[in-house]
Amino acid sequence: MTKADLIEEVSRLAELTRKDSEVIVDTIFDSVVRSLRVGDKIEIRGFGSFRTRQRKPRVGRNPKTGDRVEVPAKKIPFFKPSKELKDLVNSGATPAMPPAAAPAPPAPPAPTSTH
């Protein structure tokens, strides 16, 4: 799913204009990025959490020349899915559409008289 697909889905499900849906999706993404930049953790119950992890400086190699390159320390975004999200992904069920109910058992045949 792309960002455009997500905007289209929000527009369809919330019965909003595409422009309004785009503002909503952009606002959510911008809020997540702003929070991660300042070191905050974002937790969305039933979905997962976002946070940053610190990577230590290291020595890497230029793949073209093989020269040693100093790679500085940096923060990287990290997502940890919730147990509920993992279970939904592994069960194949979708949260928006509950699994179909089992079909009702057939009605017993009507009694017939043999007079």
Q: What is the architecture of the largest domain at the second tier of CATH?
A: Irregular
Structural class by sheet pairing and helices: alpha+beta
The total domain count is 2
CATH class of the largest domain: Few Secondary Structures
User: Helix share of residues?
Assistant: 25-40%
CATH superfamily of the largest domain: IHF-like DNA-binding proteins
CATH topology of the largest domain: HU Protein, Chain A
Share in β-strands: 15-25%
Q: What is the straight-line distance between the termini?
A: 67 Å
CA radius of gyration: 26 Å
Order of helices and strands: HHEEEEEH
Strand order of the main beta sheet, please?
A: 1-2-5
Low-pLDDT runs of 5+ residues are 98-105
Total number of strands: 5
Shape: elongated
Q: What's the mean pLDDT score?
A: 86
Report on the biggest sheet. Answer: 3 strands, antiparallel
Q: How many helices does DSSP assign?
A: 3
What does this structure look like?
The chain has 115 residues and is an alpha+beta fold. It folds into two domains: 1-38; 41-93, Irregular (HU Protein, Chain A), CATH 4.10.520. 36% of the residues lie in helices and 23% in strands. The protein contains three helices and five strands, in the order H-H-E-E-E-E-E-H. Helix 1 crosses helix 2. It is elongated, with a radius of gyration of 26 Å.
